[in-house]
Amino acid sequence: MPLKLLVQLSARNLSRHKRRNFMLLMAICVAVGGVTFMNSLIRGFQYDMQESAVANLTGHVKILAPGYLDDPSIAKSFKLAADWQPDIAAEELEGWAARIRIPAVIMSERETRGIQFVGVDPAQESISFLGDADYDGQSLRDASDNRVVIGRALAEQLETKVGRRLVIITQGADGLNREAGFRIAGVYDVEGTGLEKIFVFTGIKMLQQMVDAEVFTEVSIKLAGTPREFSVKVALAEFFTGLVVLDWQELEPQAAAMFLFADAAIFIWFLIMMGALIFGLVNTLITAVMERVRELGMLRAVGMRPGAVIVQVVLESTFMMALGVTIGIGMGVGLIFWAGDGIDLSEWAQGMEMAGMRSVLVPRLMIADLILVAGLSMVFGVLASLYPAWRAVKINPLEALRR
Amino acid sequence: MTEVVVRCSGVTRTYQDEAVPVYALRGVDFEVRRGEFVSLAGPSGSGKSTLLNVIGGLDRPNEGLIEVDGINLNDLSQSELSDMRLNKMGFVFQAYNLIPVLSALENVEFIMQLQGVGAAERSERARAALASLGISELEHRRPGELSGGQQQRAAIARAIVTNPVLLLADEPSANLDSHATEELLELLQRLNEERGVTIVTATHDPMVMSYAKRRINLRDGTIVEDAISAAALPAVR
Q1: pTM for the whole thing?
Q2: Taking CB atoms and an 8 Å limit, are A5 and B113 in contact across chains?
Q3: What gap in Å lies between CA A204 and CA A285, rounded to an integer?
Q4: Among A4, A302, A306, whose Cβ lies nearest the Cβ of B111?
Q5: What is the ipTM of this complex?
Q6: Which residues from chain A sit within 8 angstroms of residue B101, using beta carbons?
Q7: Does residue A2 sit at the B interface (CB-CB below 8 Å)?
Q8: Angle at Cα A336 formed by Cα A334 and Cα A339, nearest 5°?
Q9: Nearest chain A Cα distance for residue B98, angstroms
Q10: Which ranges of A177-292 does DSSP label H, i.e. alpha helix?
Q11: What is the mean pLDDT of each run of 10 residues along chain B (237 residues)?
Q12: Which of the listed CATH numbers 3.60.21.10, 3.40.640.10, 3.60.15.10, 3.40.50.300 matches domain B4-236?
């Protein structure tokens, strides 16, 4: 097959009907650019949601006592030996945090609320939202700090502020209620009032003293780089015999479902855009074939084989698509960089928080998505050309030459 | 190498028109020998173009035998017919049918690309063909930049560059003025006499007929006259 000739013919045929081909090229560019940018927003939404879920004291993997998820009380706790940390490659691990997290009641002079009371070692909490929070007042000093930090939204509900005292009641290891007074060291401010209303933190040694047991209710692990939850889970399950090891998808099933949906959304969005585009492409190619009936008839008459005619039409579509995809991806990537600081969606902040997202949506560029868009677009380009190519082959050279 | 380039025996071609068969050719018998310049003449609907198409393998007869260079075209598949046309025949069409996005040189070269001829040889032969037709200075122009006569010359260059056994020309003068027609015919005559190219042309143009050495008149799908023309008389003598 004279491939060089077919490439030459197909490439030059693009210069025919410049306006029509330019319009089609622009349609491909806008579709591919739009898909590329939209994919980056979907990825931004997806990973924002995942990071929020992971940072919400969950981590990528968590170790719990059996039954804790159904009854999250001090009764479902476990002890850790001094050398409790298993070997995980440093490059895979961002950090560990061992905590006590139990339900409690908090009281100010004016209001009473139900909360999650969390004993932490502040040095370990760089892996959770607590590490990034802004404070009015002070953060916790260390694991022995006997003060508390509360969220801004809770402080407003309790009508209290930094320096005031609060009373917290929770259940001890013996099943009896424990009550203690705490001074507010600081009021933390994080994105999303949900977290601020629920979590109250103190030093873990203080909380262990309060419940009267040197125990933990969870160990949270945040992984670095591209997390490999499954392999780490397996290693931890072998190490922490008798405990339950769960990943973030099991702990935050709603976020996990949304994460998977985002993967599907990328394909759905692509199919909608390219599906609409493909009709235009088929139409343009058929028009181009019908306009060249005499020429194609002549080529067949002088001895070009049907397969070569098919390749010529397919190549035309492929070249058009390749050009459109290249420019379109360039446009999409340009848009991603332009919106690199994120799109402010604070007007819809409440809805965004419900979806586990921050109020600024930052597009996320993934090379794999670009390859996917480019590859599938080319496949669509070839598929779109098959019918016009078939029409070109069906041209009877004799009838074509009579026109 | 056979001396008979084209052999038609009992060739019949019918078209179905509302269940009534219309005869375009009725049992045509004739032979064309190597080096002949034959004009198929006759009024519209006489069957001359159909006969040319059948000889060129673009159409198949309902009955009868068609041989070109000793090969029975009826036995060939569509792909084999394509190869036959590519390697043994040259076509000159009424409307030139040059590819508008290729230059004159590329239009002549592309047929050799289909044959798989190497780039250097292709270029050399295409330039020689254009030069022999007197348009080598126009080799980089595209068809839209050439006059009708120049386009027809480029089309002839494309047809002869492969050294075909048979050159088929369907109404080659239809879109040319009388001056360009005369130039074209002198060119065909030169190709026939100097290079021995066998030419069969379908025409109703008396000027074309006058240059052909043999004239076959058709009417209602049958040959009514097969005669040596005046152009060939000196050679006959």
Answers
A1: 0.74
A2: yes
A3: 70
A4: A302
A5: 0.84
A6: 9, 12-13, 15-16
A7: yes
A8: 110
A9: 8
A10: 193-198, 204-211, 229-239, 248-251, 253-291
A11: 84 83 90 93 89 92 92 90 91 85 92 90 92 88 91 89 90 81 85 89 88 91 85 51
A12: 3.40.50.300
